[in-house]
Description:
single chain, 325 residues, alpha/beta, Alkaline Phosphatase, subunit A, eight-stranded mixed sheet, 8 strands, 14% strand
Amino acid sequence: MLAKVSCALAAASLLLTAFDSRFERASPGQTGLNEKPAGIEHVIVIGVDGLSPDGIQKAQTPNIDRMVANGAVKWNVRTVLTSASSQNWASMIMGAGPEQHGIINNDWELNKHTLPPIAQEADGRFPTIFSILHKARPNAEIGTVYHWGGFGRLFQKNAVNYDKHFSTEDSTATDFIQYIKNKKPVLGFVHFDHVDHAGHHDGHGSVQYYQSVAKADSLVGRILAGINEAGIAGKTLVILWADHGGVGKGHGGATPQEAEIAGVFSGAGVKKGYSIQQQVYTYDLASTIAFALGVEQPYAWIGRPVKPVFKGFEEPKNLWLGEKP
Length: 325
């Protein structure tokens, strides 16, 4: 009888060992077992203010088109409301919406707002992807370069190694590319504002708007070339994102034209020519970056990583795509 029990215990132990070996053990600060796509050491986010799916699809965008063809895309990522800049850029890097982080409009300032964040760091801001990555990996190189000065007020200054603001899209791109070459950041984030300017000045869907999108595409091409010249292309996940679209010369409303953007994933670990099926929200960006880098996201975040863009991960089993009446 004892021999049978011993055999059973040994078999159970072997089974548990085999089960455990299927998972990748995570170090402190990581997401957990088997929760990191392979081969990603760097994440570069290219954010284009006011870039609509319509703009990408109708303007001359050969570089973005190649990203889509060789990567994964979601054409109707839902923004937070209202579909304006501050709350959406904040949601992108904070993994949560205005109800959580408290940034409800473009008038928000760190020392002047009505709704406090439900969780905050020592500086009073809601935790961002920059701050949680810095805490998990203090030696990680993290940097951001931005065209719109307002972006700089949204994140913890002590969480980044590099923090620069420039007045034109060209100078923003030039500096960001040089930063990539010099520092090879674990996380680099660039913001361009000129497409939004064209939307407000000439109107979304205007010739000038599409020209500004084509200019953004040329900057994307320069950044991709810079990543390659830095020698990190094979280990880098590149994400293209936006804060909102637009209607006429404005945005902020609750229409698909204003409140849907395109999310494009390309590079290391990404499936080729993949159309994302699961619902995606703008605050899922921060969660996806954390997932790609193996960092645990705060409980206060409501975002979820867009896992099916990565090789070895599938769409959610409980995915609900709706029913025809």
